[in-house]
Amino acid sequence: MTLRIALQHRFDGFALDVAFEAPSGVTALFGRSGSGKTTVINAVAGLLRPDRGQITADGTVLLDTTAGVNLAPHRRRVGYVFQDARLFPHLTVRQNLLYGRWFQPKGPGPGLDRVVDLLGIGPLLSRRPGVAIGRAILSNPRLLALDEPLAALDEARKAEILPYLERLREELDLPILYVSHAMAEVVRLANTVVLIEAGRVTASGPTASVLSDPANAAGLGAREAGALIAARGGAHEA
Q1: In angstroms, rounded to a whole number, what is the distance separating the alpha carbons of residues 175 and 1?
Q2: Residue 187: strand, helix, or coil
Q3: Taking the model in full, what pTM does it have?
Q4: Given 30, 38, 98, 119, which is the most exposed site by the fewest CB atoms within 10 A?
Q5: Which residues touch 228 (CB under 8 Å, ≥6 apart)?
Q6: C-alpha dist (Å) from residue 155 to 101, 165, 187
Q7: 3-class DSSP state for residue 157?
Q8: Alpha helices (H) in the chain, listed in sequence order
């Protein structure tokens, strides 16, 4: 499944003009604060109507301003996980998860048991939130949009959750748009990287190619630029 995005939108003092493709797997939107990353996924989710644009998901047109097509957010089937979880504090984890099924279209989709297994949250089902990613998956979305989902966590909690995000990437045939300022997350999770600077795409492509190209050093920032080398660990010492 491929997501194709072309958007133009103007705010006071800022203009967004981006075009890229997001294949199945994780496509990381990387750039400085205020570069337009969240604006892109808000437009994909239908929370922002751009001045001009086209968005298609595996051939289904979500937005085409020229043709007058603009599907409502609930019809786009985008599983959106915000920076703040936006879960219901009065409901348990199980109840929050099942809330996502209200938006699932007719037909097969990921069941509660599979999502619980994917995220390793079986012992937590009777507790209160939060598990926003699981709820998004249970809505049986066309794609996932994750806006810095780990930003509020310390490094130890991030280390616990990253393996589950890797499982989502490997086991769900969905495009995942992943906004992050953390290069370690991008390197570990992303199949594709889209660098966005001041509302423009400065580079887009496979993670290893984008991150190791010296021409992209400015967009990555001096602290993040470098080579990405694929390797396999041969052994682990105690």
Answers
A1: 7
A2: helix
A3: 0.75
A4: 98
A5: 187, 207, 208, 211, 212
A6: 31, 15, 16
A7: helix
A8: 37-45, 73-76, 93-99, 112-119, 132-138, 155-171, 183-189, 207-211, 217-220
